[in-house]
Amino acid sequence: MEGSHAGGGDQATRHGHTGEGDFAGQFDVQFEGSANTLEAFWMPFTWNREFKRKPKVITGAKDMHYTTDDNRQVLDGTAGLWCVNAGHGRQRIVEAVQQQVARLDYAPAFQLSHPLAFQLANRLIGMAPGDGAFDHVFFANSGSEAVDSALKIALAYHRARGEGQRTRLIGRERGYHGVGFGGISVGGIVNNRRKFGQLLTGVDHLPHTHLPEHNRNTKGQPEHGAHLADELERICALHGPETIAAVIVEPLAGSTGVLVPPKGYLQRLREICDKHGILLIFDEVITGFGRLGTGFAADYFGVTPDLITVAKGITNGTVPMGAVFCRKGIYDAFMEEAEHGGGTIELFHGYTYSAHPLACAAALATLEVYKEDGLFEHAASLAPKWQEAVHSLADHPHVIDVRNLGLVAGIELAPREGAPGMRGYEVFTNAWEDGLLTRVTGDILALSPPLMVSEQQIDQMVEMTRKALDATP
Ligand SMILES: Cc1ncc(COP(=O)(O)O)c(C=O)c1O
Fold first, then answer.
1. What CATH number was assigned to the domain covering residues 93-372?
2. Record's family (predicted)?
């Protein structure tokens, strides 16, 4: 087979390469004695055949940079995968995890717990948006799990209150809510959905808010598009609002190529949800923990949802963790239902690793670093500089749109004729080879650096992006 043959051939070269790097020993051990070492790992959301022909391998990281297996420094333009908000290898987080694994490696998550779980839940409630609006946190291990947990909590909440007919979930076109069956059902990215059967039933979708004909090269929030929230009224009229449990949106959609919400859009969604007793879920897996220069996007937009899903930046990407913040009244409804029904367990849902001790230790240390370093404020102060810098790319012949908010930018490229996504992939590869990590979705480049980024590194990122665009046909 072409893929495995090419992979095997390149691995020999690769093995030779690794002898040069600081981390070579570590990497060599994994390659020792096998002709097919790259092949066994089925990589997620990856062009596996291409990777195995031409691997991109990271062996270390510190602050704003990755180290590659051939010992190059790569500037991290994407905070890993939107998660390393405090920068890499932060000593405080490293030590917290090291100490925790020695003290308590694992505690059963069901009917038992450990102190850091409660400490972290309290910390998160203390910083949640909406002036004390949230009073409970449910822990998961990823964004996908946080989303599925939030959808299940929303359904069961209505049932606990005697509104069990509210079974419909409303997502949005181009939404990304992870890869669980709940997440892909409410999500709106066709490639993530079409090969996986019928998904959840009873799901409908709002239109996406990307209106390039009106909002091209908008700096910050677009003027045009708030009316798209009114589509929720149409969906309510179609199904009956009393059948709808929840609406889930990313306040700023990241994975689908950085879609910034039009002015007034989220406020309008909130009003319609309130009018019809529908729960509003914000998926803040990428916007949570400072990405927009505020704790959460809900703070930035001044709209308080009923449930918030978070992950990624909660532990600075060091240990997997996800969580759902629940607005006052949600937890109580479960407690009251069980109290009156004489039940014991109030929510039949949870994970072996919910509130894992290492994740809790990492999260508590991460929140300290965010606070001590004033990273959310730093991000807010750099946002105007970031905006000007990324919009300077709008004049490049490949670029058809630039959009931004906080420390996020989307740079949309004209697709190459007959090969959508190829130009984006090549820009990503050229940037990587030149020493910049970008993220690409189809032909849209996303930049979202660690919040510790400096003005000079912003300029460097933009220069390197331009160079990668120039180098790509
Ligand atoms: C908005 C949003 N929700 C959910 C997820 C899924 O998170 P995970 O990959 O941790 O499951 C992501 C990941 O990028 C995301 O951006």
1. 3.40.640.10
2. Belongs to the class-III pyridoxal-phosphate-dependent aminotransferase family.
- Whole-angstrom CA distances from 385 to 257, 405, 457 are 21, 11, 11
Residue spans of the domains in the chain: they are: 2-89+375-470, 93-372
What does the pLDDT look like over 314-346, one tens digit per residue?
A: 999 999 999 999 999 999 999 999 999 988 999
Report residues whose beta carbon is within 6 angstroms of any ligand 1 atom.
142-144, 147, 176-178, 250, 254-255, 283, 285-286, 311
* Domain 2-89+375-470 CATH superfamily: Aspartate Aminotransferase, domain 1 (3.90.1150.10)
> Per-residue pLDDT for 198 more than 80?
yes
Ligand 1 center to 103 CA (angstroms): 30
Span 211-266, pLDDT tens digits: 999 999 999 999 999 999 999 999 999 999 999 999 999 999 999 999 999 999 99
Candidates 115, 121, 61, 64; CA nearest to 331 is 121
User: What confidence score (pLDDT) does residue 31 get?
Assistant: 52
| CA distances from residue 100 to 96, 106, 384 in whole angstroms, order as listed | 6, 9, 39
Compute the distance from residue 324 Cα to the ligand 1 centre, in Å. Answer: 13
